[in-house]
């Protein structure tokens, strides 16, 4: 165990659950310091009320308890900017866990500055990406902050030690929490991820224990209704603003897309990903609303975005996604990429009609006052400003460098 | 009309259909030259037999009629290398039409060299990408060849002129071909594309006339069976080699994936894309087997590919896809990217289990003797070579540059 | 010769020299239209006064003569943004000609809109990049404009035809202009380029005829003084603002750097480049001030730019440079890249000390209030916030994926 | 101090100098293990003979002393492949130190496998890049190896402790080595780097103490002769093979270029760079031969490389350079990039003529049997296969997307 550093006041990212309750107590014991709890509503679907009572019961002063509803900020300032980029990590993952971490870290640091805390603490384990995402963000925003990562520091060996510690300190242990959970869950308004134990064999399908658990985010495609659902998503400057003509705020909109997606079996993803810390891990991710949003955004871009802008975005996207995955939200290079992406979204305004059916999202139509789709140019028999003769020159000059090389090869008797 | 250049012998990409039959006659009349017909089986699903009879009837000499089965070469040398890259154009298009063009062009040039022809001719229109793909490939392989593009050259104005010309020259006009087709189709073993007229309003869904036509490639998700189909796809060094343990040659394997995908409503795609010649166009593409293959290849890579290799591939992919879309297969830069991609596939060997259900393809498991997934490292309580303490140093040095900037900003009293 | 289209009024990019004087007359004769002349001072070093007299003599109405000093706009809005990117085309070329074209085109279109002209005309040849740069910019800014490119249109065959035409129309022919020039020159405040004839053998050095001509931009290194010159260049937010502590406006600053560079033999470049139209060409470029500015900007970035920002900039730069080279200044993708680049320059403020000596530019020092260089961290024996122990974890996790692969290879008995 | 791990036999990268002599003794004392010394000649210019005697004197068994001349392998397998990429880190650094590390590490691991050692040890400090480069390579090649990094482990505080330890153990202390060196040096055949103390203020020029030290690699430009030197460098498939028509092996060729460059003041570079571990550092690097080689390779590529290949190379280069800088030579992504780069070099054969003068390298000519430079195409009045009329279509289709956007903006009354 690391020797505890001198800490006066620490801001703990606190859910009120067993693990962070143990951490709270452990901080008080180990560091002998004042603990400030910070509980955020990012749409994870848990009641936040009990967190206050539990913190009070653990001896946290009322003025040291912070409970914030960050749902709109989360979607407006983090989720939407990311979706402008059509970000997918390793071709498939919508970054649902990754994108929540910088906001939590940012608010934690704001609270630390407010209450004069010199340390922050999170409950992420020592093998995952979340520790990196939290801590890199902490350091970027408050470079001298002391970071406490209990899972890397304490001497507990496995679940039984933790439970014993909780018992010893009178921490409430909910039914079923005594055993190691068969899988761990992280959730926010964008998605739910499940990892661990029963999911660790990548050659076994996601068990019903996970895919059909009571609090799942989406149903399986097989359970979805036999009739498709049709919706229209409206966009303004790259962000979704309405469903079926009704305006929604950011969080409400994502919530409604979640409801529609979940009802139709959309957004379950079984994947193996490469962690920043170097190993591969397997997870089951549920992102119903985000999956719909991704397809809708691509579709509205397909008629409003210039080709050069789209191709540049596509080439920048994997790096942008990796930056978010790696916790690099508050870096100059992420901001540079965001500036480029945002500069492309001025005309990404219009409506996309979608069919949602048994896990699938199918584009049925797109329209925009800013559309670059030009029916006159494309119609097989119409003129409309396009002269077919131009194609010859276009082709010949595009091919010129290849002809020059071929002439050379002929001259040299080369065969490729 | 362009003044005809002096041409002695021309190799025509000839399907035997109405359009290329008109072109054949037009070539004979306009250029007064010997015409060599080349008909390729790329798995488009048409009988090739009649092409010979029609060519003979049109006065083509028997030794000038070439009919080749290129299906295995197509899949082995073009489709598979492209799938090693997980290529998607503009995020969604599997490049089914694009990838067939360089092979047709290459074979056409080989025949031209064989028979001593000085010209080649294709039936692509003057507004599309295919003219570019054909002609850039022609020039790259035979830089002095004369390229004849009838649709850019002749003086016919619309369908009635063509039909009149066909009548005048006794060219057989199949029932229903007198009118402008309500949409045009291109097909090969990888996919079928539909474009034009009834598809030209991007705000209208694909009509049943297209989506449910008799010779469609895939059914709609709604029509698919209520029971999922489970398959296992085997890979060796990046290429699919077996289904459910049974080995297949390249074309047979893709054919079998097409059959499975089509039966389950997989692979229909309604999109608006950016053409190389500068306008947007809308199409409906059916790629049942290719869609399955894309997911399977991603899944086997997810356990066998190093993170650095995967991320580099992901960043190179959009450019690689655009090169193929733009007809740049025979360019040095496509070959360079292929060399990089191929260098990553040595260990992409193993099996992927898939559930195919109502248009969706869901990974159920992946296994490989070359797997980099390491259960010991990931298990929450096991040690296995990973020391959680290392994470602290990893994070701190990754954050160091951001801390330095934050210290500077503090010193300067800057707020971002 | 192309059939002349109906044109009412054309804005001609007019230098007053022989070639554009012939074009002026040819426009009047061929198109029978009103000609508006536009003469810009971009620092090419020619007197603009005579242009007015010549235009009047050629029958251009006084209100149709535009003479603009664009030097500050050129440097502020085009040169400086480009230097923020450290742009080099093909590793060596500072894009001196390329960057002037969009400004000329933009102003030409502004004048066309002002005077109600329906056409624009430039004097660039049909083989070069400049025709593309001019015309792509015209079309981007005024999509229905008629573009007249005399060198691609008229029927003159070579120099004698042009001279005869000039004689016939009483156009003044300066001494020495009757013959084909042994090389052609383009100049602006950023650079001078020489191309053609005597430079066409890339295996022969630049002849003195070019390198030592009377109006050259820079001397040769051998001719430069034996004593170095020392200067300090000040930057604010990425742009140079002062020399040796004295503030300069954009054009004046570049002019002063030109003077210093030229006096010390800086900035001569003999290169072979790849044109956008497909062939290679050879040129001799002189960019004395720009060469100094490039080194100075790199140096101030070296202490003020974060690593992630710098590396991203370096990776984006070749594409950004190619866009400018290809005339794509007014494209969405160039603007996106500019947004990214500009977002990195907030703290690129400070001073760079340089030694200029016999063609070389050597950094002697850099300082900035925004410096990220941290002497305490780097000093071999000081602590200063860096814990050497962190390096172990950093290295181990960076190596983890490679170890996993190596363990696998060991297990399989593989040797790479 | 870290608790010593159990080690039986360790291979030490050993120069015979004071620092590695102390390390040798410290290893014997601390780990109580058998020490194997490995001394490599990479062209650093030191005599290797004394290393054997010193190792023997320190108690190393004769069979445990390895002294290898790796100069040709170094240039052939590391330097030349890197120069094929025109690699520059952060726009200026030729990666002279970085590129030597993977070879040393590889040979160290080979020896470890040969002698059955379970550990390796290097003398790099805990703040620099070299520790990363060594250790990442070790782990990639022998994942279970124990890595000993004395500078991160031992408890010596500064120079006096080290000297005292040396005295106590009878280690020879050369004159002037008792004090902290005013700067530290690393050298190999490609370059010499100087860092530390007297170089730590980035606003002060490199002092003569460094730039004019007795064993410097290159002289200053001011000291160089007043007459230029002219040489011709021959290339085959991307690698330099001759100077002035005389064939050289890899190491001999680089040595000769070093001689020529050094005599003319080429290759001194004062820079501030971003270290992988997160801070900026300042150095003075001398790379005379490499600087000449970089210019020569660019020049031969300028006539033999296709545009698409060159631009792709230029875009990949910064990442390739950063991989080498960061010690990632033995990674899949570096090998992928190398495969792409190498695939471009087949025709990079020919000769480049250079003028070397007072620190500058100036291309005077380039020729190649594989040249793609086509004088006929470029000559202003010649036809040669290029039809100027083609440019119109080329431009129009390249501009089409921009016109479509402009038409839309007109329709909407938008101003950008």
TrEMBL record, chains A, B, C, D:
Binding site for L-aspartate: 125, 129-130
SUPFAM superfamilies assigned to the protein according to its UniProt record, in alphabetical order: Adenine nucleotide alpha hydrolases-like (SSF52402), Argininosuccinate synthetase, C-terminal domain (SSF69864)
Keywords of this entry: Amino-acid biosynthesis, Arginine biosynthesis, ATP-binding, Cytoplasm, Ligase, Nucleotide-binding
Keyword Transferase (UniProt): no
UniProt-listed CDD domains: ASS
Keyword rRNA-binding among record annotations: no
Reactions performed catalytically: L-citrulline + L-aspartate + ATP = 2-(N(omega)-L-arginino)succinate + AMP + diphosphate + H(+)
One annotated GO molecular function: argininosuccinate synthase activity
GO biological process: argininosuccinate metabolic process; L-arginine biosynthetic process; urea cycle
Record GO cellular component, one term: cytoplasm
UniProt xrefs under Pfam families: Arginosuc_syn_C, Arginosuc_synth
Domain annotation Arginosuccinate synthase C-terminal: ranges: 183-404
Chain positions recorded as ATP binding sites: 13-21, 40, 123
Residues reported to bind L-citrulline: 93, 98, 129, 133, 184, 193, 273, 285
Similarity annotation: Belongs to the argininosuccinate synthase family. Type 1 subfamily.
Record protein name field: Argininosuccinate synthase
């Amino acid at each position: 165990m690391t020797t505890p550093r001198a800490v006066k006041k620490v801001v703990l990212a606190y859910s009120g659950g067993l693990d962070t309750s143990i951490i709270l107590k452990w901080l008080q014991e180990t560091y002998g310091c004042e603990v400030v709890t910070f509980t955020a509503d990012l749409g994870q679907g848990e009641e936040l009320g009990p967190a206050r009572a539990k913190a009070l019961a653990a001896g946290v002063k009322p003025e040291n308890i912070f409970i914030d509803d960050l749902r709109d900020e989360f979607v407006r300032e983090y989720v939407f900017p990311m979706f402008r980029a059509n970000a997918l990590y390793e071709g498939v993952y919508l970054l649902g866990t990754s994108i929540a971490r910088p906001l939590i870290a940012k608010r934690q640091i704001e609270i630390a500055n407010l209450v004069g805390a010199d340390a922050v603490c999170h409950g992420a384990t020592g093998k995952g990406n979340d520790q990196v995402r939290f801590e890199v963000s902490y350091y970027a925003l408050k470079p001298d902050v002391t970071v406490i990562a209990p899972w890397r520091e304490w001497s507990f060996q496995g679940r039984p030690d933790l439970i014993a510690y909780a018992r010893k300190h009178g921490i409430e242990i909910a039914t079923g929490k005594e055993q190691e959970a068969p899988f761990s869950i992280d959730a926010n308004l964008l998605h739910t991820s499940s990892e661990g134990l029963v999911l660790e064999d990548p050659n076994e399908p996601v068990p019903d224990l996970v895919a059909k658990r009571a609090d799942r985010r989406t149903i399986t495609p097989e359970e979805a209704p036999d009739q498709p659902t049709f919706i229209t998503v409206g966009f303004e400057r790259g962000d979704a603003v309405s469903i079926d003509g009704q305006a929604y705020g950011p969080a409400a909109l994502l919530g409604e897309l979640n409801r529609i997606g979940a009802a139709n079996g959309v957004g379950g993803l079984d994947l193996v990903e490469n962690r920043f810390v170097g190993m591969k891990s397997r997870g089951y991710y549920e992102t119903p609303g985000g999956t719909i949003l991704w397809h809708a955004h691509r579709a509205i871009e397909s008629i409003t975005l210039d080709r050069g802008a789209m191709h540049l975005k596509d080439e920048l996207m994997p790096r942008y996604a990796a930056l978010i995955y790696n916790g690099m939200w508050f870096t100059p290079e992420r901001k540079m990429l965001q500036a480029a992406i945002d500069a492309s979204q001025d005309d990404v305004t219009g409506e996309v009609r979608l069919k949602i059916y048994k896990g699938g999202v199918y584009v049925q139509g797109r329209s925009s006052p800013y559309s670059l789709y030009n029916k006159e140019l494309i119609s097989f028999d119409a003129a409309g400003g396009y002269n077919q003769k131009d194609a010859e020159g276009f082709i010949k000059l595009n091919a010129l460098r290849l002809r020059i090389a071929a002439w050379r090869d002929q001259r040299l008797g080369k065969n490729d």
